[in-house]
Amino acid sequence: MWRNYFIVSWRNIKKHKAFTAINVVGLSLSMSVCLLLILLVYDHYSYDTVHPYGDRTFRVLTYHKGARGIFSNGYATSPLPIGEALSNGYTIADTYTNLNHGLHGEIRSEHKVINPESEFEGRSLFADHNFFKVFGFELKEGDPLTALNEPYSMVLTSKMANLLFPQKNALGEEVIMEGMGRYRVTGILTEDLPKSHIRFNLLASFSTIPLLAKENHMTNEYKDWETTWMNYNYIVLNDKASRVEAEALINQIASEQMKLKEDHPGYEFELQGLTEVVPGKLLSNEISFTLPKIVLLFFALLGLVVIITASINYANLSIAKSLTRTREVGIRKANGASKSQIITQFLVESVLISTLSLLVAIGIYWFLIDQFNSLWIFNQVGITLEDTVFAYGFFLLFSLLLGLISGVGPSYFVSRLDTIRSLKGNGAFSNTHKGGLLSKISGKKILLSIQFGLSIVMLVSIFLIRDQANYLTRSSFGFDDEHIYFVRLQGHDPKVIETEFARTPGIEDVTFTSHHPAVGRSYGGNMKLNEADEYMTIYHFSVEERYVSVMGLELIAGTDFPQTANHQQEKFIVVNELATRRLGFESAAEAVGALIYVEDDSRVKIIGVVKDYHWEPLMKSIEPLALRIKPEDYQYAYFKIGVNDPGAFGKQMEQKWNEYDEARTFQGGFLNEETDLFYQFFYDLGGILTFISLIAIAITALGFLGMVSFHLKTRTKEIGIRKVLGASFGQITLSMTGGFMIMLAATALVMVPVAVFANGLWINEMAVHSPISIFNVGPAILIVVLLSGATILTQVWRNTSENPVNALRSE
């Protein structure tokens, strides 16, 4: 029986080559995208699966009360004392471990100088003695129970160990961390590390931090309850404790211990399971970047749109094509075939077509993997998709399910055809007296409406994403990024760098800073106005005294830093307008000259106030900021330039660096290119959406072409009669395809507002955005109108150009 099903199905596939080709092309295009998305989802759900207490291990997240949103959704960091507080006096936790991201700078051995975070994917972290107990990372050398016990101990990845000590075993050797002291290598990790959200190159013992803080190499506030941005807490709950119970306890303890200003909204804490981190929430202060769940859901939605479009095509064309197979169905029924057997026959055909489509789709999928891995955004965050044999099992299962789902409608439809009328060649439902066959399959227009509606939504989204990306890259940040060339210091003395480079033709001035503005990075800090006040979070950049003038920031009150500020203990700060309001001043002028407390209860004077500028990404609201003179934090030299040939200038700067330091790779460029790169993900997202939309639109166009062509073929004789009676081309077009035109107009009226509303949900969350207008929506509607109009006109012209005599002879 099954053999017969397959033989008949294969004969029908070969017989109706055009029908098969349209369906295979549509299904294979959509399936190739879905295969890629399946691999992406499979990859992200394979993270953090090897840890010994994975089902009971949770990370503590921090939120500002009442400030949750798409682009400000909390922090992966939390106050350090949380873990210890749960373990002392409570039985809810079996153990905990802490990480700290304050380990920075170059690492030096007798053979090599490396900047791990700028040259390699992964972080440099402090980890406590419980790290290897909580997490499933394995050492190939060293004892995991003691490797991170003693101060100034360090564990290296195999790659880092081989680079630092290419000619001997790294275990037991010493390395120097710039500004962080001398460390002994006590452990080396295995070659192949498991996939985890904790991507690192080296780990230093957490017990080193108090000694570094004592020597002023790190801030002493790392251990405060109010410090929410430096540490990561991982709690292993006992097997009887619940997450809800633990969260309530953490929030209770924190509310008792945290001393915040009265007008501070406060913090709330949440537990996140290890397997929920990737894919997870969009959080600040993540250890490493992976696609958040909302992005995966977005991609999944795109894949669903494409596959629904292809499935609708298959269902529409199969139902239409079944009208030419009514005699076949009638003969089968007359010979005793049951409904289930007819349904099975058509389902087997559907599965065979989906399997053929899978073979074609796999070829397209291999091409797409390379294109996906070459996208800038995924290169920057270290996401690389690898083709695995195991994934092909999911691909085959997906293909079978798609074949069954796509074939259910058509197979059920043909199984209901009336036997007698089918044998006469005009098959219909047994209850034809209620309107006839065509009225029963008018649902095909509804399916086409869905296809075109989804196409409109995707096209509108493409234009909006592109428009937002262009708007963001054209928007003013409030500082001069056009005439700034940066060079990463890589541990060199800033004054030496200034001496070496300042004489380069085209350089007008120079300053130094700890961070690039507008790319989402800064230092957190605690400040307050009065001694009795509670500390509040005010972010800061460490800058040199010329920073305000070189960057073109607008002073609205007070003065710039004095020229000697960089050569003495920190006495002055410059703040933005929002910081003055947060500190309690009514005006910027009132803040000038005021002394405020910072971190270790030292006091500094507000010497100037700058106009608020976008030091945060444009999508986020402006936050309070202080510019502080802290030379030990400088990471970049900023050169203000005036040159006619930027390309030649860049090559000259790189050449000077290579002459100055042969051991380190040059890292520099124009600041505006660096800030524009931050928004490259919009263009990549737009490119992905454009590609998928083109596939969806192509599939829709193929289906529409098939349906219009079939519709006109069934009315060939009517077209001939109309021509004989003198009907014009326009009159025939309107009468033959008016229903399609009404359908398209109704679809646009419904789906354009849906597209605008859906995109408005994320656009309006951005602090800076371009408004939605007819210039975004109009091109999408125009493309659909032109595409559908061209299809209708060409098909009508093709049918009306034939001799009406031949049309009248048509049966």
Considering the chains and any ligands shown, give keywords for the structure.
single chain, 811 residues, alpha+beta, 8-stranded mixed sheet, 49% helix
What would you say this structure looks like, in words?
It is a single chain. It contains 28 helices and 24 strands. The chain has 811 residues and is of the alpha+beta class. About 2% of the residues have low confidence. Helices cover 49% and strands 15% of the residues. Helix 1 crosses helix 12, helix 12 packs antiparallel against helix 14 and helix 24 packs parallel to helix 27. The strands form three sheets. Strands 1, 2, 3, 4, 5, 6, 7, 8, 9, 10, 11 and 12 form a twelve-stranded mixed sheet that branches.
What oligomerization state is this entry in?
single chain
What does the largest sheet look like? 12 strands, mixed
Q: Figure out the total of helices.
A: 28
Q: Which structural category fits the helices and strands? A: alpha+beta
Q: Give the fraction of residues assigned to helices.
A: 40-55%
Shape: elongated
Which band does the percent of strand residues land in? 5-15%
Average pLDDT rating: 85
